[in-house]
Amino acid sequence: MKTTKSYVAKSVENMAPSGIRKFFDLAATMEGVISLGVGEPDFVTSWSAREAAILSLEKGYTSYTANAGLLELREAISDYISERFYVPYIANEEIIVTVGASQAIDLAMRAILDPGDEVVVVEPCFVSYVPLVELAGGKAVTVETTGEQGFKLQAEDLEKAITPKTKALLLCSPNNPTGTQLDREELQAIADIVKKYDLLVIADEIYAELAYDLRHTSIASLEGMRERTILINGFSKGFAMTGWRLGFVCAPRELAAAMLKIHQYTMMCASTPAQYAALEALQTGMNDVEEMKKAYRRRRNYFVQSLNEMGLTCHVPGGAFYVFPSIQSTGLTSEQFAEQLLVEEKVAVVPGSVFGKGGEGYIRCSYASSMEQLQEAVKRIKQFLEK
Ligand code: PLP
User: To test the ligand 1 pocket, which listed residue (106, 129, 175, 237) has its Cβ within 8 A of the most ligand atoms?
Assistant: First the structure.
């Protein structure tokens, strides 16, 4: 018999494991660790959403829904996206409810990529982007953003990365891991290049609700962009629903139909109780979203100021719940910094290098932790730096 490993597909064999998980596994073996590593809210899903899921089970709603999701939920999503972000989508044709934004990204890639097609990926970025492009047979062409530019994609850098094989740009604002939010003008400059080269944009707007100083602008709302955008969003972050695994994708009819074909064969539909919870969250949960946002804003302000005072300089991130301070003054690599901080002071952060180009010299800290935990983390990081 061949070796068991030789049965693994080459595309999977060559895939690097997530650098984030490595740190979680190490932290999990230690006691008393403050984790600023995880990218998820510390809040519990609002009670009304939880209750709606319970009620749906009590009523016996335990079967599949339509492949694209409950029509009622898609209608609520359509209203939500058009009222908050000014992009109209037809519930019955242009929206698919997915298993998290993660599945939506996968669907988008598989629906548009032929072998060898290129996708421009802006780094530092969410760890799944490059592997998902490659799994779909595409080639990820990475463009670096830098701390000096506040990790904002420059239109001229985007233009330089475009080749005749480029099919799409994958863009995330507000961003994981940097927290950078692009304003309307910056998005417009990017949209102009996208239109000039006739590309699609896959817009990952999962942090749209978590924008603290400036209301989120969806790139799909800019003139001429709706027809060339696959808009990805979901309930995990803004609505504190990571474990429910519920997201959605909105796209022009032909693209939505292509994604739906893949979705119906691979997933059938998203979880039924989770869809009822999400419907309730959209109908009655916006106040909870606002309250969580206020708490994140307070924590962000405290944490950014504390890090800057310690000499770990960072820009003020406009959104998400991450800060991305520079650790270059310590002379350590981001991996050394994260490892030593964990071992010596029991604070878990993620080395910036795991997020790709431009990430080395930085660490990602999530401030989705209680104020007390953040204060303790600040104390420990200070101690670490004093050593
Ligand atoms: N996109 C970005 C930028 C993320 O940071 C995450 C989660 O960390 C996701 C997508 C996945 O979200 P979901 O839980 O909805 O799959």
Answer: 237
